[in-house]
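Researcher: Can you fold this with flavin mononucleotide in place?
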Amino acid sequence: MPFPSFREFLQRVEKAGDLLRIEGADREEDIGALTEIISASPKHPMLLFDKIKGYPQGFRVAAKPLAGVKRMAMALELDPELSHVELVKGWKDRMKTFRPVPPKEVKDGPVRENVFGRGEIDLLKFPAPKWHDLDGGYYIGTGSCVFLRDPEGQWTNMGVYRVVVHDAETLGIFINHIQHGRLILQKYWAQGKNCPVVLSFGQDPAVFLAAAQREPWGVEELSVAGWLRGEPVECIKGAVTGLPIPAHAEIVVEGEIPPFERESRPEGPFGERTGYYATGLRNEPVIKVKSLMHRNDPIIFGEPPLKPVPGMDHFGIPLPAAAVWSALEYAGVQDVKGVWLHGPFATVIAIKQRYEGHAKQAASIALGVRATLAMSRFVIVVDEDIDPANLSDVFWAVTSRCDPAVQSEILKDFPTSDINPRVPPEERAEGRFVSSRMIIDACRPYRWLEKFPVSNVMSAKRKAEMTKKWQHLLKELEK
Ligand SMILES: Cc1cc2nc3c(=O)[nH]c(=O)nc-3n(C[C@H](O)[C@H](O)[C@H](O)COP(=O)(O)O)c2cc1C
């Protein structure tokens, strides 16, 4: 059953016992800190902050709505009991059935419960949090969807880009140079025009996930969201921009982004998903807000980036991992058994080796996949007995099966993002964003596969039998 709004998704999560309500938090002191602590805990429920200090009851912040395999599976309408790799596979297989489901235009919707025009706009009334201690502002947009129309193609792009509140009518946005959103902005700016924009700060998971996906140029991501949901996304035509506005969104603004040369403001620093503040404080484009609308008791969708914690199921992993797996299949790489990412920097692929060079073939395809291109510096290929999502398994394979002199390769000058902390300061200053990539073949050498020492780890079958036989004892240990 699709979730037409974020609220319906939230209710489903609460029913599944995966939501923690928190009252009385301070947006400066508590919201970010609690999100970081609880996100690293084994259960990491979704957090819903209400009665935020200094803000009216009902003006809420949800944090990490899609963190964890369970909630991702719920959002994608897959089985919440799937393992990490099964979730990636489920999503990859579902992507094969994609057919666009275009949005449906409607006249009205809950997002218009409160509408403000020129002279009435107050962005400061929302409890935008300071997510990390050294952040240089209050970020209302961490899980926000940004709609921009290509002036030539007349299609609408969606992306997730961070958004800071500068003042009651002005926002700041960071869109890095490799995003389609940035290319669209530049087309308007090249003609000396302001770029019309719509931003949604709380929307159903399908819209968010479609925006987060790196779709090819020209793909209407709202039609991807419609397909994901199984029904069209209802949208109102924006009175100011003509852009689509999801009718069930929580908070939406319409506005314009003036050419960077004409207007920009300092933005950042902001703690990124790399675990660093790589971009620092520098000028970025601004959004002049012309219209604001929100539901009663609006909820900000907060997806603050955090340092990758091994074992923490960051929502951003399954989609790019599925994109890598699909690319491998499309390129004809046989017998891929699983794909997972460990933070933004490492892609792990498990294969059943069929011929010499199989691992290298898989790694070389993965290197160029857009979904991970900007950041994944290490591509590691492991055998089928290794769970690519299990970091200790992967580390064991790398350290025990890989002879670095013959099973690693380094390639230079791949495009990377500004948030990559390893870009040297002088290259950053020149606007040069490239970095090298390493392939680690952590498979047993194919040529003497049969002679490679046998592992002393018991088989999965035997482990299951023993666990069942001794369950009374093992249960005691779990207490
Ligand atoms: C939670 C989240 C936050 C993101 N923040 C940013 C950001 O601040 N700037 C950016 O350029 N990309 C950011 N991204 C990545 C883009 O949203 C993503 O690559 C998207 O597919 C880009 O779309 P586009 O190529 O159509 O512009 C973020 C992604 C997610 C999921």
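Model: Folded with flavin mononucleotide in place. The radius of gyration is 23 Å.
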